[in-house]
Amino acid sequence: DPTNQEDRWDCIQAFFQSVNQETDGPQVALSLLAHKIQSPQEKEALQALTVLEACMNNCGKRFRGEAAKFRFLNELIKVLSPKYFGSWTAQTVKDRLTQVLYGWTQWLKEETKIQDAYSMLKKQGVIKKDPKLPDKVIMAPPPQRATDSVFDQEDKATLLARLLKSRRPEDLETANSGITPKIFEYRIFCTIRHFGV
């Protein structure tokens, strides 16, 4: 969506999870992504490249194998080549795509079609020099960490222990309803630490 102000990682994750679940996921996804990468709208094309990189990093060999076929690579070449869309594609999109392709030549050395496509673009002068690769790989951001302090967790664990020791049914019911995954994980951690594991 070109109106997005920033990458929507919830949508990107849902996309690559769907790709992994469907039998023809890689083929369908690459067809959709090729269309979006060729968009005349700069933001849309750049977002599609981000999704492509996220899929390359999260969808495994099946996806990478499809992306390394000339059928898909030719669609990317069209974005760079002045014979096709290169004359009107935004320079930022061409730079980013060049970076993506060059990264693949370094990362997927066994994929000869990627190597061939990149070499051809250099020989034709479409790519003048190898770009600098970014320092980080496009991966989904890690889930947000809990902001509870250790002291809050210890207070909750102490309260839970007191409720569990009580013989009153209402205390046990409160303890059962108050057990959250965080408290449970913390108690396991404390138990493991107590036994020196």
From TrEMBL:
It comes from the Eukaryota. One of its GO terms (molecular function) is phosphatidylinositol binding. GO terms for biological process: Golgi to plasma membrane transport; intracellular protein transport; protein localization to cell surface. Pfam families: GGA_N-GAT, VHS. GO terms for cellular component: trans-Golgi network. Residues 1-129 form the VHS domain. This is VHS domain-containing protein.
